[in-house]
Amino acid sequence: MLLATVYLSRYGTRLRAYNMLQVELMAAYLRRGGSEEAWCVRYAAAFRRRFGWMLAEA
């Protein structure tokens, strides 16, 4: 959860932190040769399970 904490401190809102973390992780996946569709199928649900708490109201 250290990664999430860094993003929460870097960006002003929880939604922005969540979105930017997702964008950067997806970009890294695409650079390694993955596709957007594969990201959605393989990782989107896991990302939501792991980092969904970032969207919850404090």
Strand content: under 5%
Any low-confidence stretches, pLDDT <50, length ≥5? none
Number of domains: 1
Q: Over all CA atoms, what is the radius of gyration? A: 12 Å
The helix fraction, in percent, is over 70%
The total strand number stands at: 0
Oligomer: single chain
What structural category characterises the helix and strand content?
Answer: mainly alpha
Choose one word for the global shape.
globular
Topology as H/E string? HHHH
Tell me the span between the first and last alpha carbons: 16 Å
Average pLDDT number: 93
Biggest sheet architecture: none
Number of helices: 4
Task: Give your account of this protein's structure.
With 58 residues, the chain is mainly alpha-helical. The chain has one domain. The protein has helices at residues 2-10, 14-31, 36-42, 44-51. The two termini are 16 Å apart. The model has no long low-confidence stretch (mean pLDDT 93).
Give the SSE map:
Elements: H1 2-10, H2 14-31, H3 36-42, H4 44-51
Keywords: Plasmid
Highlighted features:
58 residues, 0% strand, 72% helix, 4 helices, single chain, mainly alpha
Q: What is the structure about, briefly put?
A:
The protein is mostly helical and 58 residues long.
